[in-house]
Amino acid sequence: MNTGKKVLIIDDEIDLCLLLKGYFLRKKYDVLISHNLNEGLSALKQLNPDILFIDNNLPDGAGWDVVPGMANEHPGMFICLVSAFHPNPPQMPANAKYMIIEKPIGLNDLDKQFASL
To answer: By the 8 A CB rule, do 56 and 87 touch?
Structure first.
């Protein structure tokens, strides 16, 4: 049985996407994966996810550059800013719900952050 909750993952690392997908499928979430920014932006409009994982360094742009706008358009969405390069976080809206996750990500990290799902 599905919870009706949705996760969108925008990341070009296949292994990370599979890890996140498996984790959230076990929690009965719908999961959609996009491997580039343009597809991810289209999916965001269609899916209206509860949780967004977005990488900064994507093949077609910097994901974190568009995150403040995403937070304004989807104020209820929890945003996970993902990066291995420790960039400066974007200036987020005051009401944004977000966190920064550094790669590599493990299941223990996910359990600490999302244990209550």
So the answer is: yes
Indicate whether 1 pLDDT > 70: no
What's the distance, CA 113 to chain centroid?
13
Whole-angstrom distance, CA of residue 6 vs CA of residue 101 = 19
CA pair distance 32, 7, nearest whole angstrom:
6
Q: Give the CATH fold of the 6-114 domain.
A: Rossmann fold (3.40.50)
pLDDT single digits (tens) 38-52: 999 999 999 999 999
Identity at 106, one-letter amino acid code: G
Token representation of residue 42: 């289209």
% pLDDT > 70, the chain: 97
The answer to whether the pTM exceeds 0.90 is yes
Tokens of 17: 């996407």
Listed by start position, the domains of the chain span 6-114
Query: CA 85 to CA 34: how far, in whole Å?
Result: 20
